[in-house]
## 1
Amino acid sequence: MTAETMMRDHAVAPDWKIRLRDLSKVFQTNSGPFTALEPITLDIPTGCFFMIVGPSGCGKTTLLRILAGLEKRTSGTMEISAPAANRPSNSMVFQGDSLFPWMNVFENAAYGLRMRGLPRAEIKDIVGHYLQRTGLSRFHNSYPHQLSGGMRQRVSIARAFANDPDILLMDEPFSALDEQNKILLQEELLRIWEETRKTVMFITHSVDEAVTLGDRIMIMTAHPGRSKLIVDVPFERPRRVLELRARPEYGELVYSIWGHLRDEVQRARAQDEESAK
Amino acid sequence: MSEVVEKAKDVRKASRPFSLRPSVGTIERMLNVISPVFLLLIWEICARLGLIDVRFFPAPSKIFTQLMILAENGQLWKHFSASMQRLFWGFLFGGIPALILGVTMGLSRPLRMIVEPVISATYPIPKSAILPLVLLIFGLGESSKIVMVGIGIFYPIVINSMAGVLEISKIHFDVSRNFGASRWQVFRTVALPGAMPLILTGVRLGIGLGLVLISLAEIVGAKSGLGFMMWNAWEILSVETMYVGLLVIAMLGIAFTILINELERLIVPWKQSR
């Protein structure tokens, strides 16, 4: 955990897990300051599956990286309620190929636990469980280059869950996958998540994915990014991806979110065209 | 569809034991052996027919006879082991610091900024040119030879280790930070294994250079070693012994290459099938 992150012990567990007040981020680049995030204020309740959608370049990944401790905020405050003893505050599922090519599936999935110095036997049990849950038991000894993209992303998910963090941060984990694999992995993710119901912060550019997985969706504006609208997803849990998608309310919600997002996507596109000139 | 494939496999499997045609791999391996053997054969014939001056190019059979003589009277082993010991210590004293320094330079930008100019400036100096200086400082004993080998091995390993770490994708460092790895853990679980393929390339280059430098150092100031053996052979006009020395060094080169290839298979199994 980085020193700048404020951690508070509460006698009574707070009803929020993450609390941001006017959090912003400005990068210093060679061509002057670049505002990635305009001040954002946000409360994320404990156990909430929180989705962020926004056009590309809107700073959603920056927000996640600040929460992960990989980037420092420029201003504002960030409070994350302290995890139980010996548990990490957060673990991230990265976008793209983040597995270590020099470690096999088991070693990759065990990475967080090994860094925390857990006893070997315990690591074996925990990792074994999550590899089994993600259908990777047979591939213990395989190296990442021997796996398909979908399998690699499953290892990445197993690695984050095995670490048993208080908060899961997911940065477009399925964006590189084809539609069929995506749906399977979404179902798998929901199944594993149901076991523990951790607080999740999940970034996506897919409205479908946001409505399918999330309890609450934050729509972000085009650059510079800020929160445009927060929508609650009313669907009950546990969910089945395809059944959910067949429901008319699902389509209506996707449609209305798209209505809010469309302007932003168009603005992002105009910005791209402007900078390409 | 799959049935047809199954059948095709069966046919292949069945026909293999009876096939007279060697596989492509076998042919390539044979070509590898045939060309040197063919060259030696021509050499032998030319020497016997007096087409070449045997004072400079003794027949391979003569060289081989001399090799057996030197092997039997223990001379060869004495010189061989002396050179190998120097190589070993030089490798240890030059290679290990180079590995640690190189990987750390890859991890730390400030350190890289400080050390890299020094390395760039001293790297192009021919290592053979500093032999007099090394002899002056370390004397004629073992240490000067070990230092020469060490210096030769240091450069390729330090440069390759650093380059190896810089090649590692940034996301892997993000992952290790997010999963709470300490500095030492980042070194051990990300930087070192990630840089290993290039480090092994450095080791390969370093051993080649080490063989060159050890021969040279032993020619100038030693009473044992393969370099000394060859130099001494020149003084007593035993041309065959010189060739034995060359042959042994060439064999050492091949042996080290095979050794490192095996090592590579063992410690970077993730890199082969790319």
## 2
Amino acid sequence: MAENRKGTDEPMDARRFAALADAYGSALHRWPQAEQAAATLFAESDEGRAILRRAGRLDAILDRHHVEAPSRTLHSEIVANAATQLRQGRHRRFWWLGFGLAGVGLAGAVAGLALVTVVTPDSASEHYVMDANATSFGDAGPEADTEDL
Amino acid sequence: MGADPDEELVRRIGAGDAAAVQAMVARKLPRVLSLATRMLGDAAEAEDVAQETFVRIWRHASGWRQGRARFDTWIHRVALNLCYDRLRRRREWTTDELPEVADEAPLPDAVGGDDGRRVQQALQRIAPRQREAIVLVYYQEMSNIEAAGAMQVSVDALESLLARGRRALQAMLAGDNGDG
């Protein structure tokens, strides 16, 4: 995935600088890494400073939103739950391993049976008894004749 | 992509290391809780999402292998999916699709009292995908590549969501269209 449209070797223009500020805000550390060097140079210009100042106004408002740190209760509940889940996970893996081994054994038995069937000469043809009505030209039974009548 | 800073911790959790479990909760719970709180605007629901996210972490720890995404990105994706499940259950919309049109009317100064609450209200009024982009990049401080990966969009699409979301927030919170 391309990180951005421009690399560090290309100078930043005002249009791209403004587009980046619109998307990522005024803090250059949030900007695409490959464009930070060029953006830092452009930020020194009057135009760059004005663009960052404008983006910074919204950033200052967004920064007022804080999320409280997780409570000890939540932390403890999640840790306590881990032991149960990890134990169940080990049991599940054990059973899947058992099923896997059983599957491999079954597949081996089926393969062995198939091999025996293929390798063993077909002796049934030696005991083939032709139907009494059959000829080398096909069935010469009474039904064959009556169909033509 | 470099080495995953969480990989060793995840491996130890998979091996049943209790200290690693404690370390993982200390490292990731604040991030998951912040993400869910800002996505849902409800502290109690956010705690539920955090609990469910960690259940999935414990379940998958032993089988975790770093693929294209880092563990932290995967956690964010899990938590976001749980948030979207809850947003859908609220029936805030009439179709299956999440709304893309935000209510950008300025928020009255008096609503909710403090500035932080106004920001929370404004975040809840922008389109969820725009909110998601802003929360990941601005508040969670994910790089654009990580955020785009977590959202399963291109970097260009991420930038578009960010810019539209910030413009909507600007209109609601600062009472202007961001051009001044």
